[in-house]
Amino acid sequence: MALYNFEKSNELFQRATKVVPSGISGNKNPAFAVPGSFPYYAVRGEGCRYWDVDGNEYIDYLAGYGPIVLGYNDPVVDAAAAEQRKLGAAFNHPTPRAVELAEKLVGMIPLIDWCAFGKNGSDVTAYAIQTAREHTQRRKILKAKGEYHGSQSWCRSGLGGLIENDFEHVLDFEWNDATQVEDLCKKFDGDVAGVIVTPYHHPAFANQVMPKPGFFADLRRICDKYGAVLILDDVRAGFRLDIKGSHEYFDFKPDLTCYCKAMANGYAISACCGTDPYKPAASRVFFTGTYYTSAVEQAASIACLDEMLKSNAIDHMMKMGTMLQKGLKERAEANGLEVTISGPPTLPFMSFSNETNFRRSQRFSGEAARRGVLLHPHHNWFIMRSHTAADIKKTLAVADECFAIVKKEFGG
Amino acid sequence: MLSSMLTRLGLHTPPTVRDRVRAGMHLHAVLGALPHLVRLDEEAAATARLMGKVAIEFRVFDGPKVVLSFADGALKVSRDACSNVGLFFPSCSALNRMFDGEKVNPIPFKNFLGHMKALQLLPKLTDRLTSFLKPSTEALADVAFRAKHVELSLLVGLAATQDLVESDPKVRRVAKELHDATMVYEIPGGPVAHVKISHGAIEVGAGPLKDPTTSITIKDVDLALGLVQGKVDTFAANGSGDIRASGNLHIADEYNNLFDRVGLYLK
């Protein structure tokens, strides 16, 4: 098999660097993976596959960093979006789709009584912490160290464009350490507005860590004791663990929840949902954006969630993810390598055990990409409903070749 | 102590963050490159040998200090060594103006009369360093000179991150989160520099390290020169593979957050 090259991707990227800051901003910049080993630009997608500008075809396990939950160009979702587009995309007002989608989410997700729509995860996590601050009239927000909650100033890593005050009232605790949360609540008693958590720890460049038994129960107890709002950032994992939200999967009760990625199969929409006591505060926060009420995405989201329910998509994705996780472990062992598989089956991640500098992962993923399988070396993967057993089988055959290369180059 | 007392009395205005950071970079990173200059350049090495045995302190009121210790041609730079002669600058901004090329006369202190020869030779050494860090177009035509310019510039830039960590309050938050790591910057067939990060402290040196956490490989000296001069787009070079990062790229990203900011302070 001829291995892929990425010449056109690079040509396009070189053009981009002349007219776009950093060429491609954020985590989609080539620097986030391994430049030269992955495509930079996509052209089209179908099911669990996409094609890059060089014409290379991939079985994809990144799913646009999460939003593609059914598969690229899902006919049901696209038809619903097209139908709405015929009527109009954006108006002076919301359309009935806004109410229909809100009613759908409220009916589907136990616990929640209302929801508000944005476009990206960052919109709604920021709205959630503002709602918490408004509700409590306090300042501090507690978050797990290393967790990603979006690109807004309050939670963004790095330095560019930020000032000290941006994170003055944002404090970190170690994931799974409820004692630290309680200590911070004690230390800043009366000033902690909220605790924001993801349903499990999924930082980039690290293995994923599931919640310890009792962790969320402890957070609930602590938030109740100190009057803080418990916020679930379910942007990444939402609707990939349980169609009723990840708090159902882990059996706890947050006050506010944030969704985005799997809501609409690639159409730009996010939601902050909450319980009744927080509705007045949420109403007092001025939350808007030019496209927050766009109807096409709302129509797509209704169709996507219906389709997920109808096809029991999560069960299928769990099966495919489990098959992938098990197969990778077996093939790694067969090649004399030890890997760590972390995260739930629908959002798996693999790293090479006892390695912190990712060189084996980079080699493995780079070789897999050149053979038509997209597995990110530093970021968790996403299973889609359109992945089939045949896709997993083909993926594992490629993985076998790549493990052999890693073994030859790095040893055990 | 004295500075805070004078500040309280309204007799002294503390330096701005920018002035403090720049002063630290000038003393620790720029003068800190002198031992590398002596290693790389025979003319500088000869001057260092003529300095004899002397420890010259640069001290800035309400600012950083550094001691250059010469002994038989060898040179060490440290922040807390004992000195036998000193040059005093009344403010960070005065020191910075001197490094920017303005005429500023520091006040000699300690036994300056006994070390006049060293004090007179020192500008020869710093001028030589300047000729490498701010080279003429003609000088850059020489391949060997280009490589030295690139190496010294890289070492100064990397070392300057330590002062960012210490003196820029905005950077301190990021610095607290820096993971312990080792990084190597390599130009095949050319200079190699390394960075060791431990508990937020940054140590920079020349040469490779075994099994670094992260490696940054720059294709060749000419590309590195383009990067130093700001003529090459880092992202474009990264995308094309002219700069290759491997290993823990999260660490590289964390550190580059600092490294990228050096240019805001040092030209």
Can you describe what's shown?
In chain A, the strands form three sheets. In chain A, strands 4-10-9-8-7-5-6 form a seven-stranded mixed beta sheet, with helices on both faces. Chain A has a four-stranded mixed beta sheet with strand order 1-2-3-13. Helix content of chain A is 39%, strand content 14%. Chain A is an alpha/beta fold and 412 residues long. The two termini of chain A are 26 Å apart. Chain A folds into two domains: 7-62 and 312-410, Aspartate Aminotransferase, domain 1; 75-310, 3-Layer(aba) Sandwich (Aspartate Aminotransferase, domain 2). In chain A, helix 11 (359-370) crosses helix 12 (389-410). The longest helix of chain B has 25 residues, at 143-167. In chain B, 49% of the residues lie in helices and 21% in strands. Chain B is an alpha+beta fold and 267 residues long. Chain B has twelve helices and ten strands. A five-stranded mixed beta sheet of chain B has the order 3-2-1-4-5. Chain B has a five-stranded mixed beta sheet with strand order 8-7-6-9-10. Chain B folds into two domains: 2-133, Nonspecific Lipid-transfer Protein, Chain A; 137-265, SCP2 sterol-binding domain (Nonspecific Lipid-transfer Protein, Chain A, 2-Layer Sandwich). In chain B, strand 2 and strand 3 form a beta hairpin. The interface between A and B is medium-sized, with 31 and 29 residues.
